[in-house]
Specification:
The protein is mainly beta and about 260 residues long. The chain has one domain: Sandwich (Jelly Rolls), CATH 2.60.120. Helices cover about 5% and strands about 50% of the residues. It holds the Pfam family Glyco_hydro_12. This is Xyloglucan-specific endo-beta-1,4-glucanase A.
Length: about 260
């Protein structure tokens, strides 16, 4: 929720004809406050429908898992958002505990063949991280054979993950290729989760200042792995998947669009 506070004071003094004109003083205080998301499914709408911020502790209820996590937006201007996620997890070290993320809401439901570009920027840092942290920093994109499909559901056909950081985590499936996209080398993994295929692109080095077009990833999947460009893009998220230990991931600037 964004709350606005506006304060103004107007003073006027009148006197004899020879007195100076009365000074006018106005002060405007504009303060944005964002919610602290600490509940399992807490969300917040950001930017009048541009993004939704999710805490998304989807793996916390598995027996043997314990921990906590909070997520909070830090800034929003134009279409650029900043946010922070802080977590500490233990138990079931091979399982994802959560996916705190920002989801783009505009431009979805279009066929890949009709999309020209998917420009994005993402600047982030670990302001605190355990030396043995197991986690990734990743985009999560969803495809469907229908325009009104939803991610992580029976209407999903493909999940495409783009890992900008891999700290001891393992993508679903096994490595099937290595490719270069946008001047960066990526290991390509393929796996199966529930009813959809997952392709994961894992960067060879940690990319903390990422500025790219994501459309070439789909062009590659079409030409090299048979993913049809008639598929609909139904989800575009960016966030972090922690498996084990503690960390604080701070995003100072993130943007995404579908053109």
């Amino acid at each position: 929720m964004v709350k606005f506070a506006l304060a103004a004071a107007l003073f006027a003094l009148s006197g004899v004809v020879s007195a100076s004109p009365a000074p006018v003083k106005a002060e405007v205080s504009l303060e944005k406050r964002f919610n602290l998301l600490s509940g399992q499914w807490d969300t917040e709408s950001i930017g009048n429908g541009q993004y939704t911020l999710y805490n998304n502790l989807w793996g916390k209820d598995k027996p043997g898992t314990s921990g906590s996590q909070s997520t909070q937006a830090l800034s929003y201007s134009g279409t650029t958002i900043g946010w922070k996620t802080q977590y500490s997890w233990s138990g079931n070290p091979n399982d994802v505990k959560s996916y705190a993320n920002v989801a783009l809401l505009k431009g979805l439901g279009r066929q890949l063949s009709a999309i020209k570009t998917i420009p994005t920027t993402w600047r982030w840092t670990y302001s605190a991280a355990a030396s043995d942290l197991v986690a990734n920093v990743s985009y999560d994109l969803w495809l469907s054979s229908v325009a009104n499909g939803t991610g992580h559901s029976k209407t999903s056909t493909y999940e495409i993950m783009i890992w900008l950081s891999n700290r001891r985590a393992g993508p679903a499936g096994s490595q099937v290729a290595t490719t270069t996209i946008g001047g960066q080398s990526w290991k390509v993994f393929k796996g199966r989760v529930e009813t959809w295929d997952v392709y994961s692109f894992v960067a060879s080095t940690e990319l903390t200042n990422f500025n790219a077009d994501l459309k070439p990833f789909f062009t590659y999947l079409s030409s090299s792995h048979g993913v049809s460009l008639n598929q609909y893009l139904i989800g575009l998220q960016a966030g972090t998947e922690p498996f084990q230990k503690s960390g604080t991931l701070t995003t100072t600037a993130y943007t995404a669009a579908i053109n």
